[in-house]
Every structure is written in structure tokens, then in C-alpha cells.
């Protein structure tokens, strides 16, 4: 960023290329990891405050610094307006704890969707008004259509198209459809000086 | 039908003109002019089976032809469980069936995933992961619960002693918790004389309530005995096919056919009654339970809500219900957890040359492909955008016309078709569209520029470097522009040309970039008004304006067929002329009624 202060835009653009809307609600920012080039639109909520309260036994034994990452997001993710990322929580050894939410690259989360998955792979498209239940595992190249309710603990394997309440497999992503998950072009269309879509 | 606008491409496999012809149908024969004149009708009932979006199509490099999901030959690479993502070897598949034999189950009510929970404590998902949960030991019994609809296997009376090996435990359990005999135990029980005596003592024949597998096993054993018995007649043998070839009677019957002994035949006829039917439950006789008062009572008390839907019944794994066919579980309370059906990774072959055109890596977790020849990297993609010419400055492509807006009948509308060239050669595109769309409501179509060239899909960096050095465009493109009579001073490629130059002119390209060209199509949508009462009402999707368009692509390729890694500009001695032609359908939008 240059010394001259740029005009205050709608988005905060970081050095790593993240575009975070000023109107987004990020709670516990120190526990949210952004991989870079990620877009966070207004009214998005990320619950970074829901951190793991019990450390994994291996980590506690080794004496390593506690890993407090609650939400980790890869590169070129796109969080649409009004969506919510919330780490899943459960009872573990008799006590309640949250677990981190991990998200790969090129993940699109549609408007007004709530995501409580344990892990989301890369190249995943989550439509609008989708609810992803706690500890769901979504692998790579998955398309979740609008209005789907993914039940807790569900595993969605790669190249699935799911829809319905509860989610059921309705198709497979064709071989030629892999490029449609790329979000590089979409990344350029938002921000303080957006470029038109090609 | 998908949301408009859309582009569907017809796979030539279902085109009657290419059926029964050699693969190189490209060479013009000229013998069947009527076939060449034939316009593809997107509304024909067969058409919807041959139209695919570009993403669904593959391309065979050896046949130089588009391949669709219908015409490729699939081969299964890997079987895996979609829940635990474990690969299942094909040998297991033969013995265990096509369902996951680990602890992966679906809810019979809502098909959500089931989790093993302890029955004693409140159901929680604790047991799912934590392998070291010795701190808080859960003691059985366990049940499968659905976290979506809160169904529990206890509703069907199924509880498990251990939290692991659920599939094996469930195989031994009937609904209600009573044990079910496995095949091995059943066999042993048949041999047990003490059991036989008790079975025959109690009541009349066929009293014992046999489950489906036991009854089938009993029947099979009984009839096999009958067949092997030389004293039984061969009356029923003809229907049983080769089952009876090992028996002496069928041997004598076959001999009688060849020796022509009619006397033998008469003898056989006299022995018709020698083969008898099963009379006891031990032999597989099961009396039908026609007393349905229990079912009626359940219906009266709980209503239709407690009955299972057809989809729920269809999802039930076969041969797992212990009920006989005629009282088959018609109530949701009788449904059992469904083990996950396995999924597959499949490779695809060209049906003609048998070359593999798509092959995923065998490992379940990887998403890479060894071979992936998709049509999108060989044939130009076509994007449709409405073009609004109204408004003083509104000549830019992204005009005020909203995509998805209704088309006004009898009012000319303009659409921008953007062709994008994916290959590393310059291609020449020729379009052909009927002046009027087929169907009851014929809209007028005019392709303003049906013949144009698209630049090669060169490296983006090459282009940028050239732009920075020369200031102008690529020399070749510049020449082409001049030849086409366009203004060369439009600035760098990819930018929108100066507004005033973009006028609708026949034979002129609207806009062009490095590897794309936009042309304009003018349509006059038909009026959907039905005159007279004799006409049939508007059918579903009949208001969608669909244009059939014949696309012919010509380019000069290397003879080796090695399109990858070749950058345009290198001089090649022998350039091979290639051609690809196919029908596609442009769905522009719905016409206002």
C-alpha cells in the first residue's frame, strides 16, 4: 500500500490479496486464517471465537503452542453476502469443544448459507440458502445446489452434485465441468475497483 | 429445461445421417442432398436425448469426433463407499455385494447418514470419531441414529452389543431384536435331528415362520433333491433348462429324442405325477398369512403417516427384510437401516476406436485424471448475451437487457454470440441456421456474420509481451482485420471497440479478442397467440425460443495430432486440414405470451 492514503472503499484489500468487506462481521479475527485472494462480502459472519477448548492429546503431550485456529480458508474463496461460517462443536471426552472448520481453495459459499462443516475440499460450490450441518465432510469438486440441507456428519465424495432436504446425490460433475469451479475471474469482479466479468 | 440462455450441442452418435456411415463422414459425398439439407429440430422427441451442454461432452482425438455420455463405453476403475471413502476390492464385491460392509448406514426414513450412539446415555455424536474415548466409556447397547430426522434403530427394535462391525451384527438381527440365522447356521440347523423332530411335531405343515432366505434355501434343496432323483419324472424339466442335465432322466429323455423312440415318450408321460411339490416347511412350504387384521389395526391407529413410501421401500436393500413377500414391510416401523451403496470411478472409451478418452486415477481420494479429453478444449464454446441497442450510449455488450428477461413477440431482438477458441490454431467458423425456427411458432433468425475466423489460443504472456513491444496487435490479426475491412485503430485487443463503430452490419464481426469473436444474431420472436379453437394449447417449454445452428469449424492442425504444447508461429512442413461440424441449439429465452 502506498504512503498516500487511498480513498476509503467498501472493501479492505490486504497484502495477500484478500478483499474483506468493511461491513462483514468477523469475530475472533486472530483465529481466522485466510490463504489469500479470498473475497468476504458484506454481512458475512465468521465465528473465529468458537475455538477448540480442549487440545488434542498429541499436541498437549508435545508441549507445542496451542493451535487456536478456528476457521482456516484457502485461496480464491468467495463468501457471498449474508453467509455464516461456524466451527462445529461436540462433546469430546465428556466436555464440549469446538473443532476447526477447514476450507480449501476455490470454495464458493452462496448468499445466506450457513456452513458448519468439519472440512471442505477445494473447488466446491455451495449454493444460496444452503445449510451444511455440523461435522459434514465435503470433498473436492462438489456442487451443492440452492436450498440444500446437508445433514450433520454427512460425507460428500468428490465430483458429487447434491440437492434436497436432506441432501442426496443427484448427479456427478462431468469431466468437462471442472473449470467451472475456478473462482479467479470472480475474484476480479469485486473489490474497490472491480473489473467487469469477461 | 435449463434456465436460458443456454447452448446445447448435439452429439453426432444419434444423428441418423452419421449412423451406419464410416467414421470419416466429413468427406463430402454429395450423394444424399436431402440429408444435407435436413435441419435439426431441437423439439423433436428424440432431440433431448442427444443434446448436451459442452461440459458433458468428451472428444476422441483419434476419431476427431465429439463423444457424449450416451455413446462412450464405461469401465469401472474403483469401487468405493461414499461415506467412509474406503476402496472395496472387486473380489469383495462378488462375495459381499454392492454395499458397504463397514459401519456406514443411511436412515431408512430420510436417507441421512446414521451414527452409532449409545442407547443408555443421551444420543450424541461422540462415538463417531474419538478413538481414545476411554475416559468416558460408553457401555452398550448401541443404536444407529439419524441426526437429521432423529430416527433411531431402536424404533425397529434393533440394538447392537458393540459399536463396531455394525454390518455383521445387523445381518444377524431381525427387526424387534430377535436373532436371524445366517446361511451357515441354517445349514447346521437342518442337519440337527432334534430340531427336525420339534419342527414336525408342532402343528400342521408349513406352520413355521420362515424368513425369505431360509425358505429359498429349503425350496432349493428340496427341488435339487427331486431333480437328482432318477425316479422322479422329467415333466417339469423342460422349463428348468440346463438345471436337469446332470440327472439320469434328462439323459434318457435326450437319448429318446435322437433315437426317435415314441415308446419312451409314453413312458415319460405316465410318470408326470412323480415330481411333487413341497409339503412341509422343511421343504420350503410357507403358508400365506392372509390375516391382515394387524396391519388394518395399525392403519386405523396411526393412519397413513406410518406407512412407508415407495421411495423408502425402493431404498431398502433386498433380501434383508425377514418378512415374506406378501406381508412385506409396509410400515415405517419395519424399515431397516440401509447400508450405503458403493460408488464407482469410471474410465471412458471411444466406442469406435476403443481409445480411452477419460481415465481417473484409481485412488479414491485423488481427483486427478490420467486422461481427460473434454470437448471444451477442442471445440469453440458459445456464450449468449442479450444485446440492447436502444439508448444513446448503450452499444456496449452489457446493455440494459437483463439475461432471462422475456422476449417480446414480433419485436426484433439482438443477441451476442461469443465464440471462444480453445485450440492453439486459428480456426475458421462457418455457421448455418434456418431462417425460421422449426416448430409451431416459427421465429425469424438472421445470423449477421455467419463466416469468420478466430485467433489461436496462444499463451496470454506472449500476447502481453507483443502488446508491450509493438504497441499494435499481432501482425497476423492486423492483416486479417484489414482484410475484413474493419478499423484497425480499435486499440488493444480485448477492449470494447469504440462505440460508434459498432453498428449492425451484415457480414461484420461485432467484437473480437485474442481468441474470441462476438457476432450478432437477430431474432424476430414468433407470436404465441393461438388463432382458432382447433389448436392445441401451448405445450411445456414451447415458449422457449430455440435456434438450431450448424457449426462447422476448420483449422490446420499438425498431422501428429499433438495439439498440446505447440505454440502458433512455428513453421510446420505438412499442415493437415481438419474439419469438425455439428449441430447445436441456442436457447435464447422465453417469449412473452
From TrEMBL, chain A:
One Gene Ontology cellular component: dynactin complex
UniProt keywords, alphabetically: Cytoplasm, Cytoskeleton
Source superkingdom: Eukaryota
Compartments where found: Cytoplasm, Cytoskeleton
InterPro entries per the UniProt record, alphabetical: DCTN5, Trimer_LpxA-like_sf
Coarse class of the protein's main subcellular location: cytoplasm
Family per record: Belongs to the dynactin subunits 5/6 family. Dynactin subunit 5 subfamily.
PANTHER family: DYNACTIN SUBUNIT 5 (PTHR46126)
Protein name (database record): Dynactin subunit 5
Organism: Parachaetomium inaequale
Automatic annotation (TrEMBL), chain B:
Coiled-coil blocks: none
InterPro entries noted in UniProt: DCTN4 (IPR008603)
Pfam families: Dynactin_p62
One Gene Ontology cellular component: dynactin complex
Source organism superkingdom: Eukaryota
Keyword Acetylation: yes
Region listing for Disordered, in residue ranges: 14-46, 175-208, 463-500
Keywords recorded for this protein, A-Z: Acetylation, Coiled coil, Cytoplasm, Cytoskeleton, Isopeptide bond, Phosphoprotein, Ubl conjugation
Primary localization class, coarse: cytoplasm
PANTHER family documented for this protein: DYNACTIN P62 SUBUNIT, DYNACTIN SUBUNIT 4
Assembly mode: Subunit of dynactin, a multiprotein complex part of a tripartite complex with dynein and a adapter, such as BICDL1, BICD2 or HOOK3. The dynactin complex is built around ACTR1A/ACTB filament and consists of an actin-related filament composed of a shoulder domain, a pointed end and a barbed end. Its length is defined by its flexible shoulder domain. The soulder is composed of 2 DCTN1 subunits, 4 DCTN2 and 2 DCTN3. The 4 DCNT2 (via N-terminus) bind the ACTR1A filament and act as molecular rulers to determine the length. The pointed end is important for binding dynein-dynactin cargo adapters.
Family stated for the protein in its record: Belongs to the dynactin subunit 4 family.
The protein's name in its UniProt record: Dynactin subunit 4
Amino acid at each position: 500500500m502506498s504512503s498516500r492514503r487511498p480513498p476509503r472503499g467498501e472493501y479492505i484489500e490486504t497484502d495477500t490479496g484478500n478483499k474483506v468487506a468493511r461491513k462483514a462481521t468477523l469475530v475472533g479475527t486472530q483465529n481466522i486464517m485466510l490463504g489469500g485472494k479470498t473475497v468476504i462480502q458484506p454481512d458475512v459472519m465468521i465465528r473465529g471465537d468458537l475455538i477448540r477448548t480442549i487440545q488434542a492429546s498429541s499436541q498437549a503431550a508435545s508441549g507445542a503452542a496451542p493451535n487456536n485456529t478456528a476457521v482456516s480458508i484457502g485461496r480464491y474463496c468467495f463468501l457471498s453476502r449474508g453467509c455464516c461460517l461456524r466451527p462445529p462443536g461436540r462433546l469430546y471426552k465428556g466436555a464440549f469443544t469446538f473443532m476447526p472448520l477447514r476450507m480449501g481453495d476455490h470454495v464458493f459459499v452462496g448468499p445466506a448459507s450457513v456452513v458448519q462443516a468439519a472440512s471442505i475440499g477445494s473447488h466446491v460450490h455451495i449454493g444460496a440458502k444452503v445449510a451444511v450441518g455440523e461435522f459434514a465432510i465435503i470433498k473436492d469438486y462438489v456442487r451443492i445446489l440452492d436450498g440444500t440441507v446437508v445433514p450433520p456428519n454427512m460425507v460428500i465424495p468428490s465430483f458429487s452434485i447434491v440437492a434436497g432436504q436432506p441432501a442426496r446425490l443427484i448427479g456427478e460433475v462431468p469431466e468437462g465441468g471442472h473449470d467451472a469451479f475456478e473462482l479467479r475471474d470472480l475474484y476480479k469482479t469485486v473489490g474497490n475497483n472491480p473489473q467487469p466479468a469477461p | 429445461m435449463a434456465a436460458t440462455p443456454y447452448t446445447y450441442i448435439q452429439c453426432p452418435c444419434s444423428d441418423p445421417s452419421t449412423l451406419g456411415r464410416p467414421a470419416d463422414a466429413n468427406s463430402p459425398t454429395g450423394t444424399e442432398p436431402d440429408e444435407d439439407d435436413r435441419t435439426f429440430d431441437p423439439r423433436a422427441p428424440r432431440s433431448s436425448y442427444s443434446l448436451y451442454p459442452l461440459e458433458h461432452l468428451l472428444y476422441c482425438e483419434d476419431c476427431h469426433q465429439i463423444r457424449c455420455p450416451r455413446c462412450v463405453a464405461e469401465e469401472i476403475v474403483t469401487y468405493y463407499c461414499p461415506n467412509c471413502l474406503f476402496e472395496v476390492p472387486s473380489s469383495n464385491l462378488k462375495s459381499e455385494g454392492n454395499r458397504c460392509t463397514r459401519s456406514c448406514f443411511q436412515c431408512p426414513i430420510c436417507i441421512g447418514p446414521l451414527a452409532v450412539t449409545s442407547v443408555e446415555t443421551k444420543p450424541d455424536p461422540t462415538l463417531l470419531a474419538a478413538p481414545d474415548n476411554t475416559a468416558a466409556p460408553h457401555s452398550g447397547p448401541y443404536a444407529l441414529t439419524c441426526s437429521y430426522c432423529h430416527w433411531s434403530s431402536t424404533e425397529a427394535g434393533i440394538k447392537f452389543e458393540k459399536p463396531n462391525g455394525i454390518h455383521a451384527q445387523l445381518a444377524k438381527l431381525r427387526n424387534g431384536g430377535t436373532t436371524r440365522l445366517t446361511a451357515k447356521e441354517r445349514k447346521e440347523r437342518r442337519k440337527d435331528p432334534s430340531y427336525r423332530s420339534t419342527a414336525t411335531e408342532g402343528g400342521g405343515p408349513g406352520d413355521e415362520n420362515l424368513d425369505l432366505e431360509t425358505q429359498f434355501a429349503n425350496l432349493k434343496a428340496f427341488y435339487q433333491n427331486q431333480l437328482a432323483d432318477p425316479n422322479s419324472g422329467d415333466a417339469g424339466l423342460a422349463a428348468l433348462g440346463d438345471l436337469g442335465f446332470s440327472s439320469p432322466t434328462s439323459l434318457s429323455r435326450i437319448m429318446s429324442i435322437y433315437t426317435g423312440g415314441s415308446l419312451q415318450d409314453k413312458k415319460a408321460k405316465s410318470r408326470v405325477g412323480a415330481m411333487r411339490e413341497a409339503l412341509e416347511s422343511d421343504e420350503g412350504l410357507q403358508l400365506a398369512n392372509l390375516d391382515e387384521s394387524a396391519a388394518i389395526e395399525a392403519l386405523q391407529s396411526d393412519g397413513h403417516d406410518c406407512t412407508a413410501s415407495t421411495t423408502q421401500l425402493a431404498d431398502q436393500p433386498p433380501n434383508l427384510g425377514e418378512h415374506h413377500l406378501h406381508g412385506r414391510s409396509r410400515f415405517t416401523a419395519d424399515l431397516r437401516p440401509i447400508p450405503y451403496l458403493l460408488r464407482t470411478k469410471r474410465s471412458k472409451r471411444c466406442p469406435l476406436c476403443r481409445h480411452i478418452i477419460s481415465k481417473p486415477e484409481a485412488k479414491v481420494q485423488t481427483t486427478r485424471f490420467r486422461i481427460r479429453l473434454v470437448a471444451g478444449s477442442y471445440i469453440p464454446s458459445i456464450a449468449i448475451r442479450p444485446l440492447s441497442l436502444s439508448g444513446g450510449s448503450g452499444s456496449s455488450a452489457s446493455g440494459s437487457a437483463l439475461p432471462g428477461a422475456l422476449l417480446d413477440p414480433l419485436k426484433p431482438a439482438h443477441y451476442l454470440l461469443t465464440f471462444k477458441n480453445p485450440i492453439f490454431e486459428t480456426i475458421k467458423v462457418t455457421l448455418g441456421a434456418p431462417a425460421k425456427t422449426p416448430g409451431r411458432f416459427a421465429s425469424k433468425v438472421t445470423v449477421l456474420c455467419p463466416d469468420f475466423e478466430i485467433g489461436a489460443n496462444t499463451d496470454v504472456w506472449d500476447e502481453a509481451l507483443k502488446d508491450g513491444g509493438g504497441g499494435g496487435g499481432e501482425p497476423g490479426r492486423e492483416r486479417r482485420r484489414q482484410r475484413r475491412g474493419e478499423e484497425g485503430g480499435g486499440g488493444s485487443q480485448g477492449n470494447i471497440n469504440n462505440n460508434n463503430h459498432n453498428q449492425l452490419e451484415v457480414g461484420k464481426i461485432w467484437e473480437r479478442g485474442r481468441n474470441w469473436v462476438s457476432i450478432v444474431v437477430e431474432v424476430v420472436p414468433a407470436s404465441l397467440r393461438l388463432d382458432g379453437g382447433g389448436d392445441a394449447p401451448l405445450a411445456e417449454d414451447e415458449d422457449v425460443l430455440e435456434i438450431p445452428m450448424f457449426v462447422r469449424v476448420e483449422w490446420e492442425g499438425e498431422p501428429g495430432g499433438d495439439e498440446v504444447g505447440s505454440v502458433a508461429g512455428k513453421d510446420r512442413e505438412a499442415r493437415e486440414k481438419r474439419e469438425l461440424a455439428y449441430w447445436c441449439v441456442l436457447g435464447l429465452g422465453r417469449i412473452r405470451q
